[in-house]
Amino acid sequence: MTKPATDTIDLSQEQRTELEAAAFRTLVQHLRTRKDVQNIDLMNLAGFCRNCLSKWYKAAADDMGLALSAEQAREEIYGMPYAEWKAKYQKEATPQQQAAFDNAKKH
């Protein structure tokens, strides 16, 4: 018999960290394969984008005392230098996308 989904599971901190890291790696890989999804769309729908992830990654490195530049963090998230990704895959925001982004910043 399986436990109901509402039961809590006792995880060690190491297990929790490993699960979180695996989920993060899966998210990053998913975003790398979905180059059609623009950062502005992510921002408008979810309130974060690839750039946010790279900033969080850099902040975590800083907290650990690791020397990681912002560009290195971006490359970890994008899977290539940011300038290359931007040139190949980033499209100009539509007026509707930009309006939604600007409107979200007001709230």
The number of distinct β-strands equals 0
What is the level-2 CATH architecture name of the domain at 38-106? Orthogonal Bundle
CATH topology of the domain at 38-106: SMc04008-like fold
Radius of gyration, whole Å: 17 Å
CATH homology superfamily of the domain at 38-106: SMc04008-like
> What global shape is seen?
globular
Structural class: mainly alpha
**Mean of pLDDT:** 92
Strand content: under 5%
For the report, how would you describe the main beta sheet?
none
Number of helices: 6
* Succession of helices and strands: HHHHHH
Sequence stretches where pLDDT stays below 50 over 5 or more residues: none
Spatial separation of the terminal alpha carbons = 47 Å
Determine and state the CATH class of the domain at 38-106. Answer: Mainly Alpha
Percent range for helical residues?
A: 55-70%
Helices, strands, pairings?
Blueprint: H1 13-33, H2 39-46, H3 50-63, H4 70-78, H5 82-89, H6 95-106
Helix pairs in contact: 2-6, 3-4
Describe the structure.
This is SMc04008-like domain-containing protein. Pfam families: DUF1244. It comes from Pseudomonas panipatensis. The protein is built from six helices and no strands. Helix 2 runs parallel beside helix 6 and helix 3 crosses helix 4. The longest helix has 21 residues. By secondary structure, the chain is an all-alpha fold. The radius of gyration is 17 Å and the shape is globular. The model has no long low-confidence stretch (mean pLDDT 92). The protein has a domain of 69 residues: SMc04008-like fold (Orthogonal Bundle).
